[in-house]
Amino acid sequence: MSQFRPFGNPGPLGLSSFALTTFVLSLHNGAIGQKTGAPPNVVLGLAFFYGGLCQLLAGMWEFASNNTFGATAFSSYGGFWMSYAVLITPGFGVMEALTEAGGSVKAHALGIFLLGWVIMTFIFFLATLRTNLGLCLLFAFLDITFILLCAGDWTGKVNVTKAGGYFGLFTALIAWYIAASDLIGHHNSFFILPNPSLAPRSRTQVIEDGKNEDGE
């Protein structure tokens, strides 16, 4: 009977690729991007290859590791970044067509695109309530980010989009923290990064904790 070689943990790769791509885009959605005047197309390479392809691959490896949540989340957001890259790539002509159709049509279309991700992210958030604090905060902040970006497109208010950029930065930092907590351990460092579990403790665990506190 053949034995399969075990997979490493694809989580840090998926989280890191999501974090870096989100960080760069959020800087442009926020005040820093507005001040520098840098075009959002600078995120294209990251959206296609790091946030897109690498995160999609991480999702596929999560399937192989029997982690349905991680596989669905990483694959979905890998698809998000690839689809976003298509939207802003001039060669595909999507943004040009929306611009020619009128500003209101463009804002409405982009708002609907983001609204779909608001709903999807909220479903992921509900699935993290009994996992760990890091993941729960990650999807909560990400959902707020999508809500603000969606509202910014529909209302045309730049400050709302900037607020989405700021929340996106926090989201990226949280994702990096979770990735680092998985990568850094006693086997390769002098410290660990805590990520408290939200899973309910069993009656056996409560009894054992009580015994440990009593010194028995």
TrEMBL record:
GO cellular component: plasma membrane
Keyword Membrane appears in the UniProt entry: yes
UniProt keyword list: Membrane, Transmembrane, Transmembrane helix
Single annotated GO MF: acetate transmembrane transporter activity
Record field: transmembrane: 43-64, 76-95, 107-126, 133-154, 166-185
InterPro entries per the UniProt record, alphabetical: AceTr, Gpr1/Fun34/SatP-like
Keyword presence, Ligase: no
Membrane-related topology note: Multi-pass membrane protein
Superkingdom classification of source: Eukaryota
Entry's localization field: Membrane
Primary site of residence: membrane
NCBIfam families for this protein: AceTr_1 (NF038013)
Sequence similarity: Belongs to the acetate uptake transporter (AceTr) (TC 2.A.96) family.
Protein name stated in the entry: Uncharacterized protein
Organism in which the protein naturally occurs: Coemansia spiralis
Species classification: Eukaryota, Fungi, Fungi incertae sedis, Zoopagomycota, Kickxellomycotina
